[in-house]
Amino acid sequence: MTPRFRLVAISRNPSYSPLQHAANDQQILDATVAELLALGWSARRLDESAVVSDPLPPADLYLNMCQGPAASEALLEHEAMGLRFFNRPSSVLGCHRHRLVPALTRSGIAFPRTVLVPTRGPLAPEAEAGLAALGPGRCWLKRGGVHAERPEDVVVLERGELARGLAEFAARGIPLAAVQEHVPGPVIKFYGVASGALFHAYLAEGHAPIPSGLVDHDALRALAFCAAARLRLDIFGGDIVVAGPDRPVLIDLNDWPSFAPIRGTAARAIAGYVHAARPRGALL
Fold first, then answer.
1. Which of 114, 198, 239, 246 could cysteine-pair with 180, CB 3.0–4.6 Å?
2. What is the pLDDT of residues 11-65, one digit of tens each?
3. Is the per-residue pLDDT at 283 higher than 70?
C-alpha cells in the first residue's frame, strides 16, 4: 500500500496580495497542491480567515500562504507544538517590515539604511537622526507592516516630499512606514526554495535575463539564500539592486511570492521540497 500523507493548504487572503497578483498567488498554491496530489498526498484547503475562526484540521504538513497578522499569530501556537509549516508562521511574521528591517540591519547582510517611522505625530530623536543619516537624495517609502497590497504602498520620493508621503500613508490608515535609502543600480527580482531546490532571478525592468558580467551569480544567489535563512524561510522571493559588479544589495524579502513567470517549475520544486520533508511512515 502506498503511504498517503495529509496536507492542509492555507490560501492567502486576497487583501494581502498586490492587486495584480491575487490570482497568481492562488494559482501557485493550486499548482503546488496538484503536484503533491500526484505524489500521493491527500489535501484539504482552507482560507486564511478560517485559521482565525475555526480549529486547525490535523495534517502531516501545512502549506502556509497566510500573510495577515491575525492568522499568522493564530498559527504560532501550532508551530510551537511542533506542527510542520512551509512557511513557518514565525517566519511569515518576520517578513513584516517592522520586524524585517531590524532583523536584516542586525544581520550584517548587505541591506540599505532603513528607518521605521510613524506616519502621524512627531518623530523620536533616534528616528530624526536616522532620517538625517540617509542623506538628502531620493528615498523609498514603504508600508511598515505587511508587504505591499497596492502599488502606492511602495513609492520613491525626493526627501522634500517625505512629509507628504507620510501624510498620505496616514490617511490610508497605515500607522508605520519604512524609509529606505535609494541605492542606484539595476534591480533584480528573485525566487527561491530552501536547500537550493530552486533559484531563479531576472531583471525587474522588462523581465529580461540578467546580462553576463552585471553581477556574480554565486554572490547573488548567496545573498538571497543567506537572507532567507536568517528568517528561516523555505519559500521566498525578493529584490536585489546591483550597486556594482561585486555589490549586490538586498532591498526586499518576502514569504511565498507568486512565482508567476515560472509557476510550473516553482510548483514542482516546492512540491519536491515538501515531499522530501514528509514524515516517514505516516498514513492517511
1. 114
2. 998 888 766 667 899 999 999 999 999 999 999 999 999 999 999 999 999 999 9
3. no
Q: Of 182, 144, 181, 137, which Cα lies nearest the Cα of 159?
A: 137
Q: How many domains does the chain have?
A: 3
Domain that holds residue 212: 187-258
Name every residue whose Cβ is closer than 8 Å to that of residue 71 and which is 6 or more positions away in sequence: 10, 13, 48, 49, 51, 52
Cell of 103: 532583523
The answer to whether residues 207 and 158 belong to one domain is no
Do 137 and 219 fall into the same domain?
no
1-17 burial: b if 16+ Cβ within 10 Å, else e? eeeebbbbbbbbbeebb
Asked if 177 and 119 touch (Cβ cutoff 8 Å), the reply is yes
Contact 176, 98 (CB under 8 A): yes
Whether residue 144 is contained in a domain is answered as yes
Separation between Cα atoms, residue 158 and residue 108, nearest integer Å:
27
**What's the CA gap between 56 and 136, in Å, rounded?**
50
Provide the whole-model pTM: 0.93
Indicate whether 174 and 135 sit together in one domain: yes
Grid coordinates representing 225 are: 539564500
Nearest to 120 by CA among 69, 189, 166, 180: 166
Q: Which residues of 195-206 are buried (b: 16+ CB within 10 A; e: fewer)?
A: eebbebbbbeee
Residue 223 lies in a domain: yes
> In the numeric block, which cell numbers belong to residue 129?
537622526
Residue 11 domain-assigned (yes or no): yes
Residue 84 has pLDDT above 90, yes or no: yes
